[in-house]
Amino acid sequence: MLKGIIGAIFLAVVCTCLYGQQPDIAAFFKEEASVEVIPGMFTTYRSNGRIYWEVPDSLIGREFVVTTTILAAPARPDRDMEKKFGYSGDMIGPVFFSFRKHGNELWMLDPQHERVIEDPEGVYAKIAARRGNERLYKILPVKAKNPESNLVEIGEVLKDFPLFTLDIVSFDLLIGTRLREKDCIKEIKGFDNRLLIHATRTYQSSSMGMRGKPVAPPYIGDWDTGICIKLLSKEPLDPVFANTEAYFVIDKNYFQGDQPADRKAVIKRWRLEIRPEDEEKYMKGELVEPIQPIIFYIDRNTPEKYIGCIIEAVRDWRPAFEKAGFKNAIDARLVPTVEEDSDFSIYDSSYPFISWKISGQNNAYGPTPCEPRSGEIIACHIGIFSSVLNLEQKWYFAQCGANDPQAWNIELPDSLQYEQIKKVLTHEVGHTLGLKHNFLGSSHYSIDQLRDNDFLSRYSIGSSIMDYVRCNYALRPQDKVDLTNRWVRVGEYDKWAIEWGYRIFPGKNVAEREKNRDLWNQEKQKDSSLHFSGGVDVRAQAEDLGNDHVVVNAQGIENLKYLCEHPDAWKVTDKTSLRVLQGRYEAVLNHYKQWVRHVLSHLGGKRLAETEDENIYIPEKAAYNQKVMNFIQTYVLQPPVWMFDKTLTTNLEIDGSREFDRFYEELMSEIIRSLQKVGETENACEDMLSVDDFLESIHNGLFTEWDDNVFVSDARYKVQLLYVNKLSKLLDRSEKVTSSRLLVSIMQTLNRMKEEGLDYSHRITDPVAKKRAMFLVDSI
Locate the DUF5117 domain: which residues (predicted)? Predict the structure, then answer.
């Protein structure tokens, strides 16, 4: 008994001595003249130019996420309009840290979550466990203690450590070297689960020469930034394992006992949870509101007339979440004023944000920053660049101008602009919900369905807005469809994807819920419109439309012809209209080439087999590829001179001859690449298009004048000569052609041209035609 009492006294004395090595926090600041105390997750103290955090023991071992938002960027002499980032509203991160106690120090650590040990027994699992799941960032000496907290000096870390600065993206932003002496922490605001820090940074660029660009002068620029340090949820979101490619994912190594690591992917998604009292209703199929809906806040710098359509773009995802069982799961609203909510800040990562950027960048973006434990999306800043409307009006002119004369206006009416902004935003919101591009989404509907207003009202022009499908170019000038049916909308695939990723399936644990998710999806995947493909399949192409590229793209080209032959579509009245119409003309050329490429991809192409087929891929067969060859004869080998007519190009101050040469240089290179693909695949299986079939079709389509003994037009002659030169080049060592079979066929084709060209030159009486034929023969 006496020994026990003595031991207890000794222990108490030792503890008192150890604790006595550090003053309490009140005593630490006793001598300071003034101390600013900022309550919050970490009580923050500012005193004598220093900043301290009081870190509660309850937060030791918890994880924190750091995001940095650019509030104001300097005027930069080297500002590159093609760069997406470096604007006000851009969010950088997330990055993560945690604290661990180690004697009289707090260790700031980088938590690692790429390894998950599910069963600790066994050789592989034990080896993985020895590695640990943390890396050391910083060691912070404890300056003072309270019974349940530790005081550390953090000011220099906040100012200088890359975790809290723009240094981690300085190369991407090309902002140079930070002038540390100019760093300034302007304001700190504390909340129960986060800290907001307003800081200015100064960076000095150096003169760097970029190839093809003048050397930019050096400059010093101030960057106004907002840092949000937020406490992550104590319990990670239940992971959803990716057995579909619909979602962006994070990869992890899972260890189970003696088994080697199993690589698994976890999808990225927001935390949508239901209240306990709603669980029974939810499982019965009733719609319930999530505890925390996804609310986007819209930049007040956004032009007022677009705010309504941006809200609509976000709300367009509501039906998809209703499929998943959630009511009012997603919304958007304007950023509140200070009077409406003094705590709101655009750099508070609690608030998803949509920023409007004044820039020549013709784009928008929607990131999916997630936390590494479970793939939970924890912060989001969507960016829209004002010039995206410039790109949209060119697309709409080329794709729907034949059907809608409003597209001919130099400034499109608001009704069209609203739909364009809405389409762009709905797509980007889809990314922020976790969805990847599904380029199969535009491939399901026939040309007749794409012209049927009732069908389009129900299904849109594709099954997914996550495809790169823009407008309904299957429409003819006389077709009547609603304005909203000329654009892609949230489709059946998108609704399936949100339901697959977000629905809470029944089950007593993660494994059981995942099993029920898979069983549900097996039935759903019997519908081919819900399938995913990222690009191997010839149907999964960007910027395409319809289930028959030959038919739909032929209509697209006919629409371009309709536009080029209507002078009212090309009225130049001033310099602004000239600039706009020059851009639209460029879009017409690019669309033509793009639609030809879609069709050419079927030569030597393949498509994914249906799930019940024993093969993985099915090669494109000769029957369809013969349609492709007929398309080439009509739309490539017969030059579209209407697109280079002098009446049109002179009006636009464009050199039509030069544009023709560029146009056909690209197209003929594509033809030759297609020939090589046919050579690689002609023996893949039965009923394939052969190299000889390809060459025969091109020859018959390109040299008909020789058979008919008529004059070859200037445009046609240019195409003939370019084709001969491209074929001849395949025979020299400058091109890598491994197939001797292909080389032999090319040699035979060139010899045939030589013989027929000589014969034509002898029969034709026109001296120009005779001279051209001999020049072509001599070039072989």
Answer: 89-274
